[in-house]
Specification:
The chain has 217 residues and is α+β, with helices and mostly antiparallel strands. It has 2 domains: 122 residues, EIF_2_alpha (Alpha-Beta Plaits); 40 residues, no CATH class. Helices cover 51% and strands 15% of the residues. Strands 1, 2, 3, 4 and 5 form a 5-stranded antiparallel beta sheet that branches. Helix 1 packs antiparallel against helix 7 and helix 4 runs antiparallel to helix 6. Belongs to the CpsC/CapA family. It is a multi-pass membrane protein. InterPro entries: Bact_polysacc_biosynth/exp, LPS_length_determ_N.
Length: 217
Amino acid sequence: MIFFVIFGSVYGYFNFIKEPVYTSSSQLFLNENSADSTGNNNGLRDTLFLMSTYSSILESPEIMDAAISKNHITMTKQEVLNNLTKKAGTESVIMKLSYDAKSPEDARNFLETLTQLYIQRFPDYFKNISIKIIESPELGKLKSNEREYILAMLVATFFILMNITIQIIRDHTIKSRKQLLDRGVICLGEVIHISKRDLFEWRREGRRTGYGKKKES
């Protein structure tokens, strides 16, 4: 029951309450134009080391602010950056970009503008690097909520296990004088709730000291 309540709530929120989010993506290939006299392209190695720097140029005012202005985006620059994902590491000269927006057109248009501005302005920073678009931005696709669903399932499972644990503990709680006597424990006065662990410790102590044993006739 708990599982269905939690999972149903998460499913209902993302499918009927929260506004849909669309994602558009693109890929850029960056490479240095020079090669040494032996024919070895050392530019590739240098490009790999600087991929993080190249991706940071996207956030420069000449590129990011211009893209925001051209698309008439009313969000702040930080909000736009939060919707932008950049993947550029030291193992590939391909930069992957994706942008989230509330409509498929907005996602594509902004990423398309950003990509073109990046290619135009990049030579101002690095003149010997060429950039080629290997995946152009397309209409944004509805963003999947699989991660949120998995998280909801894990949370629901956690609460179910907690509930089972509580029920097990309750089932092994001493609630009456008769329960103590049935287990060979001498009881004087009122009976308080005793956990199974406490009862085990008491019985072990009783066996060690001989307390509570019946006298032999």
